[in-house]
Amino acid sequence: MKEIKILGPGCPRCEELLSRTETVAREMGLECRITKVSDINEIANYGIMMTPALVVDGQVKCIGKVPPPDEIRKMLE
Amino acid sequence: MDWKRESKSLALLTIIFAVLYFLPLESIRVRQAVLEAIYLLRNYARDHVILCLIPAFFIAGAMAAFIGRASIMKYLGAGANKITAYSVASVSGSILAVCSCTVLPLFAGIYRIGAGLGPATTFLYAGPAINVLAIILTARVLGLELGVARALGAIVFSIVIGLLMHIIFYREERVRSETQMALPEEDSDRPPAQTVLYFVLMIGILIFANWGEGGSGSGLWQTIHSLKWTITGIMAILFGIILVVWFRLGPYYVVATGAATAFVAVIFPGQPLIPFLVAIIGLSVAIARGGNEMGEWLMQTWSFTKQILPLLFVGIILAGIFLGRPGHEGIIPARWISSSVGDNSLMSNLTASLVGSLMYFATLTEIPILQGLVGNGMAKGPALALLLAGPALSLPNMLVIRSVIGTRKTIVFVLLVVVMSTAVGMIYGSLF
Protein backbone atom coordinates (compact mmCIF):
# COMPACT_ATOMS: atom_id res chain seq x y z
CA MET A 1 0.00 0.00 0.00
CA LYS A 2 1.64 3.19 -1.14
CA GLU A 3 1.02 6.51 0.50
CA ILE A 4 0.90 9.19 -2.19
CA LYS A 5 0.58 12.87 -1.45
CA ILE A 6 0.08 15.78 -3.78
CA LEU A 7 1.24 19.02 -2.21
CA GLY A 8 -0.17 22.29 -3.45
CA PRO A 9 -2.43 25.06 -2.22
CA GLY A 10 -5.04 24.57 -4.91
CA CYS A 11 -3.81 26.12 -8.11
CA PRO A 12 -4.70 24.63 -11.53
CA ARG A 13 -1.28 23.01 -11.85
CA CYS A 14 -1.77 21.16 -8.55
CA GLU A 15 -5.19 19.90 -9.69
CA GLU A 16 -3.60 18.79 -12.95
CA LEU A 17 -0.92 16.82 -11.09
CA LEU A 18 -3.58 15.26 -8.84
CA SER A 19 -5.74 14.07 -11.73
CA ARG A 20 -2.73 12.82 -13.70
CA THR A 21 -1.45 10.87 -10.72
CA GLU A 22 -4.88 9.37 -10.12
CA THR A 23 -5.09 8.27 -13.74
CA VAL A 24 -1.60 6.78 -13.78
CA ALA A 25 -2.16 4.93 -10.49
CA ARG A 26 -5.42 3.49 -11.80
CA GLU A 27 -3.77 2.37 -15.05
CA MET A 28 -1.00 0.67 -13.10
CA GLY A 29 -3.53 -1.00 -10.81
CA LEU A 30 -1.48 0.35 -7.94
CA GLU A 31 -2.67 -0.21 -4.41
CA CYS A 32 -2.39 3.22 -2.93
CA ARG A 33 -4.00 6.06 -1.08
CA ILE A 34 -3.78 9.46 -2.74
CA THR A 35 -4.29 12.55 -0.62
CA LYS A 36 -4.16 16.20 -1.50
CA VAL A 37 -2.33 18.39 1.00
CA SER A 38 -3.22 22.03 0.74
CA ASP A 39 -2.19 23.35 4.15
CA ILE A 40 0.77 25.68 3.61
CA ASN A 41 2.40 24.79 6.91
CA GLU A 42 2.27 21.10 6.24
CA ILE A 43 3.72 21.68 2.78
CA ALA A 44 6.58 23.68 4.30
CA ASN A 45 7.28 20.78 6.66
CA TYR A 46 8.31 18.69 3.69
CA GLY A 47 10.92 21.33 2.91
CA ILE A 48 9.14 22.16 -0.29
CA MET A 49 9.02 25.65 -1.70
CA MET A 50 7.87 25.10 -5.23
CA THR A 51 4.45 23.59 -5.75
CA PRO A 52 2.99 21.32 -6.96
CA ALA A 53 5.01 18.48 -5.49
CA LEU A 54 4.58 14.72 -5.49
CA VAL A 55 5.45 12.71 -2.37
CA VAL A 56 5.52 8.92 -2.41
CA ASP A 57 5.86 7.15 0.95
CA GLY A 58 7.30 10.25 2.57
CA GLN A 59 9.85 10.75 -0.18
CA VAL A 60 9.71 13.91 -2.29
CA LYS A 61 9.71 12.78 -5.92
CA CYS A 62 9.18 15.95 -7.88
CA ILE A 63 8.94 19.64 -7.16
CA GLY A 64 7.49 22.62 -8.94
CA LYS A 65 6.28 20.93 -12.08
CA VAL A 66 3.65 18.69 -13.57
CA PRO A 67 5.62 15.83 -15.13
CA PRO A 68 4.29 13.85 -18.09
CA PRO A 69 2.42 10.59 -17.25
CA ASP A 70 5.28 8.23 -18.06
CA GLU A 71 7.53 10.07 -15.62
CA ILE A 72 4.85 9.91 -12.94
CA ARG A 73 4.64 6.17 -13.57
CA LYS A 74 8.35 5.81 -12.84
CA MET A 75 7.99 7.84 -9.66
CA LEU A 76 5.17 5.64 -8.41
CA GLU A 77 7.01 2.36 -9.01
CA MET B 1 -18.06 11.79 -6.58
CA ASP B 2 -16.34 14.07 -4.09
CA TRP B 3 -19.06 16.52 -3.11
CA LYS B 4 -16.71 18.68 -1.14
CA ARG B 5 -14.69 19.34 -4.26
CA GLU B 6 -17.78 19.77 -6.41
CA SER B 7 -19.44 22.26 -4.07
CA LYS B 8 -17.30 25.10 -5.45
CA SER B 9 -18.51 24.52 -9.00
CA LEU B 10 -22.08 24.26 -7.73
CA ALA B 11 -21.81 27.57 -5.89
CA LEU B 12 -20.31 29.22 -8.96
CA LEU B 13 -23.05 27.95 -11.27
CA THR B 14 -25.70 29.07 -8.78
CA ILE B 15 -24.26 32.55 -8.64
CA ILE B 16 -24.04 32.83 -12.43
CA PHE B 17 -27.64 31.60 -12.69
CA ALA B 18 -28.89 34.08 -10.08
CA VAL B 19 -27.09 36.98 -11.75
CA LEU B 20 -28.55 36.08 -15.16
CA TYR B 21 -32.02 35.48 -13.70
CA PHE B 22 -32.20 38.90 -12.09
CA LEU B 23 -30.20 40.74 -14.72
CA PRO B 24 -31.94 44.10 -15.27
CA LEU B 25 -31.25 44.21 -18.99
CA GLU B 26 -34.01 46.80 -19.42
CA SER B 27 -31.95 49.42 -17.64
CA ILE B 28 -30.00 51.53 -20.10
CA ARG B 29 -27.13 51.84 -17.70
CA VAL B 30 -26.77 48.06 -17.45
CA ARG B 31 -26.99 47.61 -21.22
CA GLN B 32 -24.35 50.24 -21.64
CA ALA B 33 -22.14 48.50 -19.07
CA VAL B 34 -22.44 45.10 -20.76
CA LEU B 35 -21.56 46.72 -24.07
CA GLU B 36 -18.59 48.43 -22.41
CA ALA B 37 -17.34 45.05 -21.21
CA ILE B 38 -17.47 43.65 -24.74
CA TYR B 39 -15.73 46.74 -26.13
CA LEU B 40 -13.00 46.44 -23.52
CA LEU B 41 -12.54 42.77 -24.36
CA ARG B 42 -12.19 43.68 -28.02
CA ASN B 43 -9.66 46.37 -27.18
CA TYR B 44 -7.55 43.81 -25.37
CA ALA B 45 -7.97 41.23 -28.10
CA ARG B 46 -6.88 43.72 -30.76
CA ASP B 47 -4.18 45.63 -28.97
CA HIS B 48 -2.58 43.41 -26.41
CA VAL B 49 -2.86 39.73 -27.21
CA ILE B 50 -0.74 39.01 -30.28
CA LEU B 51 2.18 41.39 -29.86
CA CYS B 52 2.32 41.57 -26.09
CA LEU B 53 0.67 38.74 -24.18
CA ILE B 54 1.67 35.82 -26.38
CA PRO B 55 5.38 36.74 -26.48
CA ALA B 56 5.21 37.45 -22.75
CA PHE B 57 3.84 33.96 -22.12
CA PHE B 58 6.71 32.50 -24.13
CA ILE B 59 9.18 34.48 -22.05
CA ALA B 60 7.57 33.45 -18.77
CA GLY B 61 7.54 29.83 -19.96
CA ALA B 62 11.21 30.05 -20.93
CA MET B 63 12.08 31.44 -17.51
CA ALA B 64 10.33 28.55 -15.83
CA ALA B 65 12.03 26.05 -18.12
CA PHE B 66 15.57 27.39 -18.41
CA ILE B 67 16.49 29.32 -15.31
CA GLY B 68 17.85 27.16 -12.54
CA ARG B 69 15.37 27.69 -9.76
CA ALA B 70 17.38 25.53 -7.44
CA SER B 71 20.33 27.87 -7.67
CA ILE B 72 18.12 30.83 -6.75
CA MET B 73 16.64 29.03 -3.79
CA LYS B 74 20.11 28.39 -2.38
CA TYR B 75 20.48 32.12 -1.72
CA LEU B 76 17.32 32.05 0.34
CA GLY B 77 18.19 28.96 2.33
CA ALA B 78 18.98 28.85 6.04
CA GLY B 79 22.33 30.40 6.90
CA ALA B 80 22.42 32.44 3.71
CA ASN B 81 24.23 35.74 3.69
CA LYS B 82 21.68 38.35 4.81
CA ILE B 83 22.42 41.01 2.22
CA THR B 84 22.29 38.48 -0.60
CA ALA B 85 19.11 36.98 0.82
CA TYR B 86 17.29 40.31 0.83
CA SER B 87 18.37 41.30 -2.66
CA VAL B 88 17.58 37.90 -4.13
CA ALA B 89 14.22 37.77 -2.34
CA SER B 90 13.23 41.15 -3.73
CA VAL B 91 13.93 40.41 -7.39
CA SER B 92 13.49 36.66 -7.67
CA GLY B 93 9.72 37.06 -7.78
CA SER B 94 10.12 38.10 -11.40
CA ILE B 95 11.28 34.56 -12.15
CA LEU B 96 9.82 32.33 -9.49
CA ALA B 97 6.33 33.61 -8.98
CA VAL B 98 3.58 34.06 -11.46
CA CYS B 99 0.53 33.70 -9.26
CA SER B 100 -0.26 34.10 -5.60
CA CYS B 101 -0.58 30.35 -5.27
CA THR B 102 3.15 29.98 -5.94
CA VAL B 103 4.07 32.92 -3.75
CA LEU B 104 2.51 31.55 -0.59
CA PRO B 105 4.32 28.20 -0.41
CA LEU B 106 7.59 29.95 -1.24
CA PHE B 107 6.91 32.45 1.51
CA ALA B 108 6.15 29.72 4.04
CA GLY B 109 9.27 27.87 2.95
CA ILE B 110 11.62 30.83 3.14
CA TYR B 111 10.25 31.69 6.56
CA ARG B 112 10.25 28.25 8.13
CA ILE B 113 13.18 26.47 6.59
CA GLY B 114 15.01 29.24 4.83
CA ALA B 115 16.38 32.66 5.52
CA GLY B 116 13.78 33.77 8.08
CA LEU B 117 11.12 36.41 8.56
CA GLY B 118 12.85 39.40 6.91
CA PRO B 119 13.64 37.89 3.50
CA ALA B 120 10.36 35.95 3.57
CA THR B 121 8.29 39.14 3.89
CA THR B 122 10.48 40.81 1.31
CA PHE B 123 9.67 38.01 -1.08
CA LEU B 124 5.99 37.96 -0.15
CA TYR B 125 5.64 41.63 -0.90
CA ALA B 126 7.72 41.84 -4.07
CA GLY B 127 6.89 38.50 -5.66
CA PRO B 128 3.46 39.08 -7.16
CA ALA B 129 4.18 42.69 -8.06
CA ILE B 130 7.27 42.19 -10.15
CA ASN B 131 6.60 39.00 -12.05
CA VAL B 132 7.60 39.41 -15.64
CA LEU B 133 4.08 39.21 -17.08
CA ALA B 134 2.76 41.85 -14.69
CA ILE B 135 5.50 44.35 -15.50
CA ILE B 136 5.15 43.90 -19.25
CA LEU B 137 1.38 44.28 -19.25
CA THR B 138 1.41 47.19 -16.79
CA ALA B 139 3.86 49.08 -18.97
CA ARG B 140 1.90 48.25 -22.10
CA VAL B 141 -1.60 49.11 -20.85
CA LEU B 142 -0.99 51.74 -18.21
CA GLY B 143 2.12 53.39 -19.59
CA LEU B 144 5.84 52.86 -19.23
CA GLU B 145 6.09 55.32 -16.33
CA LEU B 146 3.71 53.41 -14.11
CA GLY B 147 5.22 50.06 -15.15
CA VAL B 148 8.70 51.14 -14.12
CA ALA B 149 7.44 52.84 -10.96
CA ARG B 150 5.63 49.65 -10.03
CA ALA B 151 8.66 47.43 -10.49
CA LEU B 152 11.08 49.79 -8.72
CA GLY B 153 8.61 50.62 -5.96
CA ALA B 154 7.99 46.96 -5.30
CA ILE B 155 11.71 46.14 -5.11
CA VAL B 156 12.73 49.06 -2.88
CA PHE B 157 9.80 48.85 -0.51
CA SER B 158 9.92 45.10 -0.25
CA ILE B 159 13.44 45.41 1.16
CA VAL B 160 12.41 48.19 3.55
CA ILE B 161 9.39 46.24 4.77
CA GLY B 162 11.42 43.05 5.14
CA LEU B 163 14.09 44.84 7.18
CA LEU B 164 11.47 46.54 9.36
CA MET B 165 9.75 43.22 10.06
CA HIS B 166 13.11 41.73 10.95
CA ILE B 167 13.91 44.60 13.33
CA ILE B 168 10.45 44.74 14.94
CA PHE B 169 10.41 41.02 15.66
CA TYR B 170 14.14 40.67 16.22
CA ARG B 171 13.75 39.15 19.69
CA GLU B 172 11.30 36.57 18.51
CA GLU B 173 13.37 35.22 15.64
CA ARG B 174 12.73 31.60 16.20
CA VAL B 175 14.90 28.59 16.41
CA ARG B 176 15.27 27.25 12.93
CA SER B 177 13.54 23.94 12.40
CA GLU B 178 15.73 21.13 11.17
CA THR B 179 13.84 20.39 7.99
CA GLN B 180 16.12 19.84 5.05
CA MET B 181 15.24 22.02 2.11
CA ALA B 182 14.12 19.85 -0.79
CA LEU B 183 15.14 21.35 -4.12
CA PRO B 184 14.29 20.47 -7.67
CA GLU B 185 17.16 18.86 -9.54
CA GLU B 186 19.66 21.20 -11.21
CA ASP B 187 19.05 22.16 -14.77
CA SER B 188 21.32 21.66 -17.73
CA ASP B 189 24.91 22.89 -17.82
CA ARG B 190 24.43 25.39 -20.62
CA PRO B 191 26.92 28.27 -20.42
CA PRO B 192 25.13 31.23 -18.73
CA ALA B 193 26.08 33.58 -21.59
CA GLN B 194 24.00 31.52 -24.02
CA THR B 195 20.96 31.59 -21.78
CA VAL B 196 21.37 35.33 -21.23
CA LEU B 197 21.56 36.07 -24.96
CA TYR B 198 18.53 33.88 -25.55
CA PHE B 199 16.52 35.93 -23.05
CA VAL B 200 17.91 39.27 -24.27
CA LEU B 201 16.78 38.50 -27.82
CA MET B 202 13.35 37.36 -26.74
CA ILE B 203 12.79 40.43 -24.57
CA GLY B 204 14.21 42.60 -27.38
CA ILE B 205 11.69 41.19 -29.84
CA LEU B 206 8.91 41.95 -27.38
CA ILE B 207 10.08 45.51 -26.74
CA PHE B 208 10.70 46.51 -30.34
CA ALA B 209 7.55 44.86 -31.69
CA ASN B 210 5.60 46.99 -29.22
CA TRP B 211 7.52 50.21 -29.79
CA GLY B 212 4.84 52.90 -29.82
CA GLU B 213 4.75 56.15 -31.71
CA GLY B 214 6.32 58.85 -29.62
CA GLY B 215 4.45 62.02 -28.75
CA SER B 216 6.81 64.45 -30.42
CA GLY B 217 7.52 64.60 -34.13
CA SER B 218 11.11 63.45 -34.48
CA GLY B 219 14.15 62.21 -32.63
CA LEU B 220 15.54 58.83 -31.74
CA TRP B 221 12.18 57.53 -30.49
CA GLN B 222 10.56 58.13 -33.89
CA THR B 223 13.53 56.74 -35.81
CA ILE B 224 13.30 53.53 -33.83
CA HIS B 225 9.56 53.46 -34.36
CA SER B 226 9.96 53.62 -38.14
CA LEU B 227 12.58 50.86 -38.04
CA LYS B 228 10.87 48.70 -35.46
CA TRP B 229 9.95 45.83 -37.75
CA THR B 230 13.42 45.77 -39.29
CA ILE B 231 14.97 45.54 -35.82
CA THR B 232 12.42 42.96 -34.68
CA GLY B 233 13.07 40.93 -37.83
CA ILE B 234 16.85 40.94 -37.36
CA MET B 235 16.44 39.89 -33.75
CA ALA B 236 14.06 37.12 -34.76
CA ILE B 237 16.60 35.80 -37.30
CA LEU B 238 19.37 35.83 -34.66
CA PHE B 239 16.99 34.11 -32.26
CA GLY B 240 16.32 31.39 -34.83
CA ILE B 241 20.07 30.85 -35.34
CA ILE B 242 20.61 30.57 -31.58
CA LEU B 243 17.81 28.04 -31.25
CA VAL B 244 19.35 25.87 -33.95
CA VAL B 245 22.98 26.14 -32.86
CA TRP B 246 22.76 26.20 -29.07
CA PHE B 247 19.40 24.66 -28.32
CA ARG B 248 19.61 21.96 -31.02
CA LEU B 249 16.30 22.80 -32.59
CA GLY B 250 15.65 21.12 -35.96
CA PRO B 251 17.08 23.52 -38.61
CA TYR B 252 14.42 22.60 -41.18
CA TYR B 253 11.57 23.78 -38.99
CA VAL B 254 13.33 27.04 -38.16
CA VAL B 255 14.22 27.79 -41.78
CA ALA B 256 10.69 26.90 -42.89
CA THR B 257 9.25 29.21 -40.25
CA GLY B 258 11.56 32.04 -41.32
CA ALA B 259 10.69 31.53 -45.00
CA ALA B 260 6.94 31.40 -44.29
CA THR B 261 7.14 34.53 -42.18
CA ALA B 262 9.10 36.43 -44.83
CA PHE B 263 6.70 35.24 -47.55
CA VAL B 264 3.63 36.40 -45.61
CA ALA B 265 5.33 39.69 -44.77
CA VAL B 266 5.80 40.36 -48.50
CA ILE B 267 2.23 39.40 -49.39
CA PHE B 268 0.68 41.54 -46.65
CA PRO B 269 2.83 44.64 -46.42
CA GLY B 270 1.77 47.03 -43.67
CA GLN B 271 0.08 44.30 -41.65
CA PRO B 272 2.79 43.15 -39.27
CA LEU B 273 0.39 41.11 -37.11
CA ILE B 274 0.05 38.41 -39.78
CA PRO B 275 3.75 37.54 -40.18
CA PHE B 276 4.16 37.85 -36.39
CA LEU B 277 1.44 35.24 -35.88
CA VAL B 278 2.93 32.97 -38.54
CA ALA B 279 6.31 33.20 -36.78
CA ILE B 280 4.77 32.31 -33.44
CA ILE B 281 2.90 29.33 -34.85
CA GLY B 282 6.06 28.16 -36.63
CA LEU B 283 8.07 28.52 -33.45
CA SER B 284 5.51 26.53 -31.48
CA VAL B 285 5.55 23.70 -34.01
CA ALA B 286 9.35 23.74 -34.10
CA ILE B 287 9.77 23.55 -30.33
CA ALA B 288 7.06 20.92 -30.03
CA ARG B 289 9.25 18.73 -32.28
CA GLY B 290 12.43 19.74 -30.46
CA GLY B 291 14.09 17.84 -27.64
CA ASN B 292 13.14 17.50 -24.00
CA GLU B 293 14.13 21.01 -22.99
CA MET B 294 12.19 22.60 -25.82
CA GLY B 295 9.18 20.47 -24.95
CA GLU B 296 9.40 21.70 -21.38
CA TRP B 297 9.49 25.30 -22.64
CA LEU B 298 6.35 24.80 -24.71
CA MET B 299 4.61 23.02 -21.84
CA GLN B 300 5.41 25.78 -19.36
CA THR B 301 4.31 28.44 -21.83
CA TRP B 302 1.06 26.64 -22.41
CA SER B 303 0.33 26.08 -18.75
CA PHE B 304 0.85 29.79 -18.00
CA THR B 305 -1.42 30.68 -20.87
CA LYS B 306 -4.10 28.25 -19.81
CA GLN B 307 -3.91 29.39 -16.23
CA ILE B 308 -3.78 33.14 -16.72
CA LEU B 309 -5.74 34.04 -19.87
CA PRO B 310 -9.18 32.95 -18.57
CA LEU B 311 -8.62 34.87 -15.33
CA LEU B 312 -7.51 37.91 -17.25
CA PHE B 313 -10.57 37.78 -19.47
CA VAL B 314 -12.91 37.50 -16.51
CA GLY B 315 -11.08 40.45 -14.96
CA ILE B 316 -11.51 42.48 -18.15
CA ILE B 317 -15.24 41.70 -18.29
CA LEU B 318 -15.73 42.74 -14.66
CA ALA B 319 -13.66 45.89 -15.15
CA GLY B 320 -15.68 46.69 -18.26
CA ILE B 321 -19.04 46.18 -16.55
CA PHE B 322 -18.22 48.17 -13.42
CA LEU B 323 -15.86 50.78 -14.77
CA GLY B 324 -16.17 50.87 -18.55
CA ARG B 325 -13.47 51.66 -21.07
CA PRO B 326 -11.16 54.61 -20.46
CA GLY B 327 -13.25 57.72 -21.12
CA HIS B 328 -16.55 55.82 -20.70
CA GLU B 329 -18.65 54.85 -17.72
CA GLY B 330 -19.74 51.45 -16.46
CA ILE B 331 -22.19 50.75 -13.66
CA ILE B 332 -20.19 52.71 -11.11
CA PRO B 333 -20.57 56.46 -11.69
CA ALA B 334 -17.30 58.15 -12.57
CA ARG B 335 -17.84 60.90 -10.03
CA TRP B 336 -17.73 58.38 -7.15
CA ILE B 337 -14.26 57.45 -8.25
CA SER B 338 -13.00 60.93 -8.96
CA SER B 339 -14.39 62.15 -5.64
CA SER B 340 -12.78 59.37 -3.59
CA VAL B 341 -9.45 58.80 -5.38
CA GLY B 342 -9.37 61.58 -7.94
CA ASP B 343 -6.63 63.71 -6.42
CA ASN B 344 -3.30 63.04 -4.81
CA SER B 345 -4.34 63.73 -1.22
CA LEU B 346 -3.56 61.55 1.77
CA MET B 347 -7.16 60.31 1.86
CA SER B 348 -7.15 59.29 -1.81
CA ASN B 349 -3.92 57.37 -1.48
CA LEU B 350 -4.98 55.74 1.76
CA THR B 351 -8.32 54.69 0.28
CA ALA B 352 -6.59 53.21 -2.76
CA SER B 353 -4.08 51.22 -0.75
CA LEU B 354 -6.71 49.99 1.75
CA VAL B 355 -9.03 48.83 -1.03
CA GLY B 356 -6.07 47.26 -2.82
CA SER B 357 -4.91 45.40 0.26
CA LEU B 358 -8.33 43.87 0.96
CA MET B 359 -9.37 43.04 -2.58
CA TYR B 360 -8.31 39.86 -4.29
CA PHE B 361 -6.75 40.29 -7.71
CA ALA B 362 -6.10 37.18 -9.73
CA THR B 363 -2.83 37.37 -11.66
CA LEU B 364 -2.80 40.37 -14.03
CA THR B 365 -6.46 41.28 -13.45
CA GLU B 366 -5.37 44.31 -11.44
CA ILE B 367 -4.36 45.86 -14.76
CA PRO B 368 -7.71 46.13 -16.59
CA ILE B 369 -9.37 47.11 -13.31
CA LEU B 370 -6.86 49.87 -12.75
CA GLN B 371 -7.19 50.92 -16.38
CA GLY B 372 -10.91 51.37 -15.77
CA LEU B 373 -10.34 53.31 -12.57
CA VAL B 374 -7.81 55.64 -14.19
CA GLY B 375 -10.20 56.13 -17.11
CA ASN B 376 -12.85 57.22 -14.61
CA GLY B 377 -10.64 59.84 -13.04
CA MET B 378 -8.36 58.08 -10.56
CA ALA B 379 -5.18 60.09 -10.01
CA LYS B 380 -1.70 58.67 -10.66
CA GLY B 381 -0.58 58.52 -7.04
CA PRO B 382 -3.53 56.42 -5.85
CA ALA B 383 -3.13 54.25 -8.95
CA LEU B 384 0.40 53.34 -7.92
CA ALA B 385 -0.70 52.91 -4.28
CA LEU B 386 -3.29 50.39 -5.42
CA LEU B 387 -0.76 48.56 -7.60
CA LEU B 388 1.68 48.33 -4.71
CA ALA B 389 -0.80 47.20 -2.08
CA GLY B 390 -3.03 45.14 -4.35
CA PRO B 391 -1.36 41.99 -5.64
CA ALA B 392 0.67 41.32 -2.49
CA LEU B 393 -2.33 41.29 -0.20
CA SER B 394 -5.94 40.23 -0.14
CA LEU B 395 -8.33 39.13 2.56
CA PRO B 396 -8.02 35.40 1.73
CA ASN B 397 -4.25 35.50 1.56
CA MET B 398 -3.98 37.42 4.84
CA LEU B 399 -5.62 34.38 6.45
CA VAL B 400 -2.98 32.09 4.98
CA ILE B 401 -0.19 34.44 5.99
CA ARG B 402 -1.62 34.51 9.49
CA SER B 403 -1.50 30.73 9.70
CA VAL B 404 2.20 30.87 8.87
CA ILE B 405 3.50 33.78 10.95
CA GLY B 406 0.74 34.42 13.49
CA THR B 407 -1.71 37.25 14.09
CA ARG B 408 0.59 39.97 15.42
CA LYS B 409 3.16 39.73 12.67
CA THR B 410 0.42 39.64 10.04
CA ILE B 411 -1.16 42.82 11.39
CA VAL B 412 2.19 44.60 11.44
CA PHE B 413 2.91 43.42 7.90
CA VAL B 414 -0.45 44.61 6.58
CA LEU B 415 -0.05 47.97 8.31
CA LEU B 416 3.43 48.40 6.87
CA VAL B 417 2.21 47.61 3.37
CA VAL B 418 -0.72 50.01 3.59
CA VAL B 419 1.35 52.84 5.08
CA MET B 420 4.23 52.35 2.64
CA SER B 421 1.98 52.16 -0.41
CA THR B 422 0.15 55.29 0.65
CA ALA B 423 3.45 57.12 1.12
CA VAL B 424 4.93 55.97 -2.20
CA GLY B 425 1.68 56.82 -3.97
CA MET B 426 1.81 60.37 -2.61
CA ILE B 427 5.46 60.82 -3.57
CA TYR B 428 4.86 59.46 -7.07
CA GLY B 429 1.72 61.54 -7.50
CA SER B 430 3.53 64.72 -6.59
CA LEU B 431 6.43 63.95 -8.96
CA PHE B 432 4.47 63.10 -12.10
Q: Whole-number radius of gyration of chain B? A: 23 Å
Percent helix of chain A, as a range, is 40-55%
In spatial order, strands of the major sheet of chain A run 2-1-3-4
β-strand percent of chain A reads 25-35%
Based on helices, strands and strand pairing, what is the structural class of chain A? alpha+beta
The overall pLDDT average of chain B reads: 84
- What number of domains of chain A? 1
Strand content of chain B: under 5%
CATH-level-4 superfamily name of chain A: Glutaredoxin
Main sheet properties of chain B:
none
Number of strands of chain A: 4
SSE class of chain B: mainly alpha
How many angstroms does the end-to-end distance of chain B come to?
Answer: 56 Å
Shape of chain B: globular
Radius of gyration of chain A: 11 Å
**Number of DSSP strand runs of chain B:** 0
Largest binding interface between chains:
A-B, 27 and 28 residues
The total of helices of chain B stands at 21
Described by the principal axes of the CA atoms, the overall outline of chain A is globular
Commentary on this structure:
In chain A, helix 1 packs across helix 3. Chain A has one domain: Glutaredoxin (3-Layer(aba) Sandwich), CATH 3.40.30. Chain A has a four-stranded mixed sheet. Chain A contains three helices and four strands. Helices cover 40% and strands 27% of the residues of chain A. Chain B has a domain at 33-190 and 290-431. Helices cover 75% and strands 0% of the residues of chain B. Classes of the chains: A alpha+beta (77), B mainly alpha (432). Chain A binds chain B through residues 8-14, 16, 39-41, 43-51, 53, 60, 62-66, and chain B through 69, 73, 96, 99, 101-102, 104-106, 108-114, 179-184, 303, 306-307, 400, 403-404.
